[in-house]
Specification:
rod-shaped, about 25% strand, 5-stranded antiparallel beta sheet, alpha+beta, SH3 type barrels
Length: about 200
């Protein structure tokens, strides 16, 4: 049961991350999250830049919390990692922290709330854009459809051949019957001539 659920969630994650890349980030990193906001029939992009203070990894239900100071007031937002409203996530700075949750930053302001930078080098994306998989899915779908069409054509060809064979048998039987009919009057005529003579 759990394996089935895990495979389903994995497929859903692949489906959701197929069109966008999600970089590797941790708590303490400064992120710039671009969100698509729809108002009526119009949509626009809005950036929310702040520090990642918490992250929850729970497969499809993964989320992360970003905190920023706006006009001296702390603003926190929880984003679903695989949410469709998130257009892109960028890592602006990488922080050096030893905690998983940085809730203590809520009580701190100014220089006390700073976190040291740490260069972790170039890290591979957690979920990169999948350009090959949709093509493979398309090709696999095309292969399946081509196999199905080939099977259908072979079945149709077999049916056509069977019908042609039946027609040939009928025509050969009809020819044999006609030949016998033609031979029968000729034999009768010969018999009559033999009797007369």
């Amino acid at each position: 049961m759990s394996n089935l659920l895990q495979t389903f969630e994995k497929k859903q994650i692949e489906k959701l991350t197929g069109k966008k890349r999600i970089p590797t980030f941790r708590t303490g990193d400064t992120l710039k999250v671009t969100i698509r906001i729809t108002e009526g029939d119009k949509s626009r992009l809005q950036a929310f830049e702040g520090m990642c203070i918490a992250r929850k990894n729970n497969s499809v239900n993964s989320n992360f919390t970003v905190r920023k100071l706006s006009h001296g007031e702390g603003v926190e937002r929880v984003f679903p990692l695989f949410g469709p409203m998130i257009e892109k996530i960028e890592v602006v700075r990488k922080g050096d922290v030893r905690r998983a949750k940085l809730y203590y930053l809520r009580d701190r302001t100014g220089k006390k709330a700073r976190i040291a930078d740490r260069d972790r080098g170039d890290e591979a994306d957690q979920y990169a854009m999948i350009e090959e998989d949709p093509a493979q899915e398309l090709s696999s779908n095309e292969n399946e459809s081509s196999v199905e069409t080939q099977q259908e054509t072979t079945n149709e060809e077999k049916e056509v051949e069977a019908v042609q064979d039946k027609q040939k048998e009928k025509t050969s039987k009809e020819l044999n019957v006609e030949e016998k009919k033609e031979e029968a009057p000729a034999e009768e005529a010969e018999n009559k001539t033999d009797e007369k003579s």
